[in-house]
Amino acid sequence: MASIMPGFDYDIFISYRQKDNKQYGYTNKTCSIFRQQSQQKRNHENKKNCKLIILLFLQALACLSFLPKDNFFSIIILPDTQHYSSSYPEIFYKQMDWIVENKIPLNIQYVIHLGDITNNNKEYAWEVANKSFKILENKGIPYSIVYGDNDMKNPDKNYYDGIRHTELLNRYFPVSRFDKPGSWWSGGFFEPGKIDNYYCLFNYMKYNFLIMNLEIAPRSSVLNWAGNIIAQNSSRKVILVTHDYLDKNGKRLDDLKSFEMDGKDNNGKLKGNNAETVFKKLVKKNSNIILVLCGHKEGEFQKEVNIKISKDSEETRKVFEILSDFQDEKLKGTDEKSGKGMLCVLKFYPEKNEIVISTVSSLTGKTKGEKSLLLLKK
Questions:
Q1: What is the CA radius of gyration of the chain?
Q2: Full domain range(s) for residue 128
């Protein structure tokens, strides 16, 4: 019996349909062929065949692992961590560990913090934050941060005084932490030597993105700078991040007075702008902005905004404004507010122009149902 495989005297063909084997006797025929061989040669040939079968099996598994899949990458949204850095540092560390563990399965390209890194702008809380983000740095996971109202409180008096106290922010997260030789970071800063307002650039395959990180209640000069940077990078899809923007009902916030950013400074300039002004001066004017991310107010909300391409056209573009904040979530069996290690996952399917959002607990690994969030036009 000639073989189709060089070096073998015969081939073995086995039908996996039980009825066929019984009906046509393939198994019996194969066994009779074996009996015609000497015991020594049979053992030798069996070893060869076993090696061949194992090799073919492994090749089949390798082929299965490369079956076409939807191409996606993820951005992790890290909402207000104020209670973690102040009272539950182990939850902060657990969040970062979860991100590291899921870097490959979720194809994580960036982590975006939404502000209120600390609760009262205290040094011990910044030390916790510093240690937490080093977990990401040690694994080469890019991240960005913005500061919230609690991060700019007067740290000595523990209240808002109309001044942006970002000294500790810049001490623990200096520009040099990002802008250094061999860094994963690429981008630019509003003020040299300050992390208060800056942008990050990253690419995924042929798709290019820009993350614009703005201070809470951005000053007019900051909005002008951000608009210029976004316009200069018109080929990039832009994710705008600022701490104070939406409430849990999706309404744009006008609460500057609550953290002493209303009115004018000593130079007669506005201390800050509310969310509606940010929308009109920045989001509405720049067609490459696709997402606005914020925290500050407890709750979740995803808001689709349709903006006319031009005054004379009925054609619109989509922007999604997303609130994520779990600071008031309580740990089981306690009345203490913590946040329960919750974070959000944004899965980007660039070839389908689709973004899917889900909420995950880093403590339990449980995920709320995924929601298809955004379908962008090409």
A1: 29
A2: 73-375
Q: How many secondary structure helices (H) and strands (E) does the chain include?
A: 9, 13
Q: 364 burial class (0-12, 13-18, 19+ CB within 10 angstroms)?
A: exposed
Residue 50 is encoded by which pair of tokens? Answer: 């076993």
Tell me, what DSSP letter sits at residue 283? I
Structure tokens at 285: 């004017």
Do 205 and 350 touch, CB atoms closer than 8 A? yes
pLDDT digits (tens, 9 = 90+) for 278-321: 999 999 999 999 999 999 999 999 999 999 988 888 899 999 99
What pTM was estimated for this model as a whole? Answer: 0.81
Q: Are strands 108-113 and 143-144 parallel, antiparallel or unpaired?
A: parallel
Residue 11 lies in a domain: no
Residue 2 has pLDDT above 80, yes or no: no
Instruction: State how far the Cα of 160 lies from the Cα of 151, in Å rounded to an integer.
Output: 10
User: What's the number of domains the chain is made of?
Assistant: 2
337: three-class secondary structure by DSSP:
strand
Evaluate whether 118 touches 92 at the Cβ level (below 8 Å).
no
The answer to whether position 223 is within a domain reads yes
CA distance 336 to 266: 40
Q: Tell me the two tokens of residue 308.
A: 């006319």
135's tokens:
């977990």
CATH number of the domain at 221, please: 3.60.21.10
Q: Are residues 150 and 219 in the same domain?
A: yes
Question: Are 53 and 170 in a shared domain?
Answer: no
Question: 318 and 242, same structural domain?
Answer: yes
**Does pLDDT of 204 surpass 60?**
yes
Residue among 202, 254, 221 at smallest CA distance from 75: 202
The amino acid sitting at 150 is: N
Whether 209 has a pLDDT exceeding 90, the answer reads yes
Q: Would 105 be classed as within a structural domain? A: yes
Same domain, yes or no, for 45 and 177? no
